[in-house]
Here is the input.
Amino acid sequence: MTPITDEGDTMPESETQERHRFGCAVDELETMVVESIAPPAMLVMSIMSDAQEEIAFGQAEAARQSLNRAKWIVDHHVAAKDAEGRFADTRAGR
Here is the structure.
């Protein structure tokens, strides 16, 4: 079954998967990062704090989605990557 948007249109399968994984679409995540007054790493810490609260209140699905949002932000905005897209080792002397 394909979800229906507020406008009555059907949602693309990729967006349906994003909403299941993150609780929102990836473009909404990107907007959250770009419009945040905090740097991406601080945003990640805030989202992880939200996940802790969600766990404390027994909201496992919401916590899972919060952690997935935090991981996406780390992957796309925080972590240094090399030319091949692998995580780079940024520790001194390595």
